[in-house]
Amino acid sequence: MYTDKQVLSIVVPLYKGECFLDKLVWELESFALNNQNIISLEIIFVDDGSPDQTFEALKKISPQNFTWKAIRLSRNFKSYIAILAGIQESSGYYITFLPQDLQESPEVTAALLAEIKSGYDVVWAVRGSRSDPWLEKLLSKCFHKLMHQIWSSWPQTGADVFMITKPIADILLNIQEKNSHITGQILWMGFRQTHIFYNRSSRKIGKSGWTTFNKIKLAIDIITQFSYAPIKICSILGVTIATLGFLYGIFILINKLFFGVNVEGWASVMLVILLIGGMQMIFLGVIGEYLWRTFDEVRKRPTYIVMDRIN
Known about the structure:
10 helices
């Protein structure tokens, strides 16, 4: 179906990316020039609802070694949705993305391209090391270990950067799930997947907008989208607590009837009520997370909205 395997599309999601743009264009120009004999480069810039002048700055660039286009989303839909929007606009047979801060450099893209051309459908760039603050490393380690429990193929050090072929991109676009995760969707697909290792660079410019809250929300989205473990845990806890309560009730009844032991007082009763009430609220919260996502899918709202285009 796809015969032109000479075009590489790189999606670059931008949010408050005005300060990164000059460095980005320079790096992409160098990458295109160094690889012009093996690939034609297409860049898709996606302005993810930036409140600054990112999109206006894009209008002023004039690269010489790659073709490009840009879209502006109507609001901030978050980076993974921006990547999905960029994939939709891509025309290359090979598709990948780069972060605006270039912590994953174009050299990683070159390594991904070399590997995928050997016959794979998906290639992951797995972090060998990262120069981030210790707290961020700890949170990231916990997150990726949790994801590894859902997919055994998920690298424990994380693999957020990938390169896919156009047929895989078409399947990905047809999934059309909200509150999901591109990484999880690609892992779920199967096909021929492999990985390379790289060392993640430290941030040179700006400050990350990927907050702890965003990471927690992403973890919840992935768990509820790809795993029924929370509901199963609630069921197991419910059965366990009910069984313990039943056994304790028998214990109290036997003590009262045969040994004349009075039922314990107000404190123990309140403790049981608060414990069971708290567990019930947690269970309702878990069910609500799944129910809300079902409702969000049923509404059939678009995953993102394109407000403006260049080229």
